[in-house]
């Protein structure tokens, strides 16, 4: 597994080895020993998966305090633009975001440490998105940032009239409010 720096401490793009032959491919997505060699010592306790259509934008979500979650995310099918925003107080990159295209072809994953808001936009006709979390979801500790916050200036790579968000995500305040 190859680890690629993003310019934000702790936030890494992971590129697993893909073994292809005429039958298809084999990929090892998670190996605790390999992750430890990369300095990533996470104990994942929950796996989530979503299926979404083109234009769906989920996020920007985070869990507060003791409920904060690290996530290992990937696109199983289709293509998404994945975005993480640094919310760690005192971080040199506080308020900065990083985005990467994850898709079924490149097999890349994004390792998001605790203290980040996270979201993704579906760029293909459909996508299946999977993520491992190192802490359980706690509804009382959920927070969010509005996806179109001008202070973050995230280019979601979607026409504005094609973006589909939940009512909850549409009501989130901007970055400065958190």
Structural write-up:
- The protein is mostly beta strands.
- The chain is built from 2 helices and 13 strands; from the N terminus they run ββββαβββββββββα.
- Strands 1-2-10-7-12-5 form a 6-stranded antiparallel β-sheet, with no helix packed on it. A 5-stranded antiparallel β-sheet has the order 9-8-11-6-13, with no helix packed on it.
- The longest helix has 6 residues, at 32-37.
- The mean pLDDT is 97.
The average pLDDT score comes to: 97
Determine Rg (CA atoms, Å).
16 Å
| Derived structural class | mainly beta
Provide the CATH top-level class: Mainly Beta
Helix content: under 10%
Strands of the biggest beta sheet: in what spatial order? 1-2-10-7-12-5
Q: Which regions contain 5 or more consecutive residues with pLDDT less than 50?
A: none
In CATH, the architecture is: Sandwich
Q: Can you identify the CATH superfamily?
A: Jelly Rolls
Strand elements, count: 13
Question: What is the percentage of strand-forming residues?
Answer: 35-45%
Q: Which fold name corresponds to the CATH topology?
A: Jelly Rolls
Outline: globular
Give the end-to-end Cα distance, rounded to a whole number of Å.
35 Å
Main sheet overview: 6 strands, antiparallel
Integer tally of domains: 1
Put simply, the count of helices is: 2
Give the helices and strands as they follow along the chain. Answer: EEEEHEEEEEEEEEH
């Amino acid at each position: 597994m190859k680890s690629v720096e993003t310019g934000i401490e702790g936030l890494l793009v992971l590129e697993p080895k893909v073994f292809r032959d005429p039958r298809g491919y084999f990929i090892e997505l998670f190996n605790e020993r390999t992750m430890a060699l990369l300095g990533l010592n996470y104990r994942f306790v929950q796996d989530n998966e979503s299926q979404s259509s083109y234009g769906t934008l989920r996020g920007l979500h985070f869990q507060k305090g003791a409920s904060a979650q690290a996530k290992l995310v990937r696109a199983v099918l289709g293509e998404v633009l994945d975005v993480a925003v640094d919310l760690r107080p005192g971080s040199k990159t506080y308020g900065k975001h990083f985005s990467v295209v994850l898709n079924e072809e490149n097999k890349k994953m994004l390792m998001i440490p605790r203290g980040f808001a996270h979201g993704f936009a579906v760029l293909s006709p459909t996508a299946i998105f999977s993520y491992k979390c190192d802490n359980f979801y706690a509804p009382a500790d959920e927070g969010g940032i509005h996806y179109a916050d001008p202070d973050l200036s995230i280019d979601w790579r979607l026409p504005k009239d094609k973006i589909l968000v939940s009512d909850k995500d549409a009501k989130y305040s901007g970055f400065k409010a958190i």
